[in-house]
Amino acid sequence: MNKLFSLFIAGSLSATIISCGDDTHKNTATETVTTAPSIPNISLSIVNTYPHDTSSFTQGLAVYKGQLYEGTGGAEYDVVGSKFSKLMKINVKTGKAQHSIDLEPKYFGEGITILNDTVYQLTWREKKVFVYTLPGFKKIKEFNFNTEGWGITTNGKELIVSDGSSNLYFYDPSTFQLLHTQSVTHNGELAYNLNELEYIDGFVYANVWQQPYIYKIDPASGQIAGSIDVSQIWDRIKTIDPLADVPNGIAYDADSKKIYITGKKWPELYEVQLGQ
């Protein structure tokens, strides 16, 4: 998302801890260096490439019953996003919206997810989540919550939300009551800037804001189980369109097992295959 501040970024691919004796024992102390295990790398290969609308400041991406949906950001107070935030049903092959609604200009749209024919769309600073029915995007509810909204996904029972911190928040879908919070860590260090989310086969996958990484997270423990480096794809995007923004957007089709990724104002959307 377009954040107007910088956060300290933890959760790097490796951590080094150095311990040594104090100054009074320089001649006798032995310096010990311990290198913590790095996050396992998960390989990525491109299966198919599709067009993506470069006016879409992608904040959320989801596949439901074989159909791709996208939520975008933009508000009257933020000119870096699009003019308005949108919720859209997308034709994958053309990249065009088949159905679209605008949010009010005062709202900056964020992540989306779909559960039981119901779309949940977060907002950023406004701390509201909008609830729509499918197929017509009829808004039926809105809830308030206590953090910024960044990414959202579902494990089929709960809604899982990120706010740019090191936390994942688990909410009740019917009331948006907070059920519990899970910190995300690697080797005991907190991993910040968790952004757009997707739930795939028991794990939460999270874009790391402004970084070329997608983390694979065990939602039960908060441990990072792997990292996907999308640097090559991001470099490709920059050569095609220098105005393209950061990677953001992961969608999983549970029926076909297809995974899609894209970014803010990217000219392309990719179907990808992940290694073990």
Descriptors:
mainly beta; 276 residues; four-stranded antiparallel sheet; disordered N terminus
SSE topology:
Elements: E1 16-19, E2 32-35, E3 44-51, E4 58-64, E5 67-72, E6 86-90, E7 97-102, E8 109-115, E9 118-123, E10 128-133, E11 138-144, E12 151-154, E13 159-162, E14 167-171, E15 178-183, E16 185-186, E17 189-190, E18 194-200, E19 203-208, E20 213-217, E21 224-229, H1 231-240, E22 247-253, E23 258-263, E24 268-274
Antiparallel strand pairs: 1-2, 3-24, 4-5, 5-6, 6-7, 8-9, 9-10, 10-11, 12-13, 13-14, 14-15, 16-17, 18-19, 19-20, 20-21, 22-23, 23-24
Characterization of this structure:
The chain has 276 residues and is mainly beta. The chain has one domain: TolB, C-terminal domain (Neuraminidase, 6 Propeller). The protein has one helix and 24 strands. It has a four-stranded antiparallel sheet, with no helix packed on it. A four-stranded antiparallel sheet has the order 4-5-6-7, with no helix packed on it. Strand 12 and strand 13 form a beta hairpin. The longest helix is centred in the last third of the chain and has 10 residues, at 231-240. The chain is globular and about 50 Å long. The two termini are 29 Å apart.
